[in-house]
Amino acid sequence: MPSGKSFQCDLVTPQRILFSGEVVSVTAPGTVGSFQVLYNHAPLLSSLAVGKVILRFSDEKESLYATSGGFAEVRENKVVILAETAEREDEIDVARAREARDRALKRLKDHAAEIDAARARGALVRAINRLKVAGAG
Q1: Closest by alpha carbon to 67, among 45, 89, 52?
Q2: Which of 45, 75, 83, 124 could cross-link with 70 by S-S, CB 3.0 to 4.6 Å?
Q3: How open is the CA angle 112-113-117, to the nearest 5 degrees?
Q4: Which domain holds residue 124?
Q5: Residues 6+ apart with CB under 8 A from 1
Q6: Backbone phi, then psi, for 50, in 5-degree steps?
Q7: 3-class SS at 90?
Q8: What pLDDT digit, counting tens, does each position of 11-54 carry?
């Protein structure tokens, strides 16, 4: 349970800063499992998987982001998330995410020799994650 003490968090992609402000906890999808950061957390550097980042605030509200890869650094009561891509839940285009999911499923089902199966699986995982974060999956 968050202690109520806040710390700085920055969530950025190569294109923009999605969030910069005070939070009481951060939950992120590490490549070896999800982790939560609270006030006075030990220093940490982690690679990130496709998943959901949850930022919790002192008023008990939270903000959800669909992310795909990147890194998180924790030190001196500051968290920096450098994500390859990230979208806040209310920014996700659900129709577009469904189209991406359906397209990836079709590519995997067709088993065409010229299709890169690993790339199609990655696209599928990212689309499903976006739908889940948007509450449509």
Answers
A1: 52
A2: 83
A3: 75
A4: 93-133
A5: none
A6: -65, 130
A7: helix
A8: 999 999 999 999 999 999 999 999 999 999 999 999 999 999 99
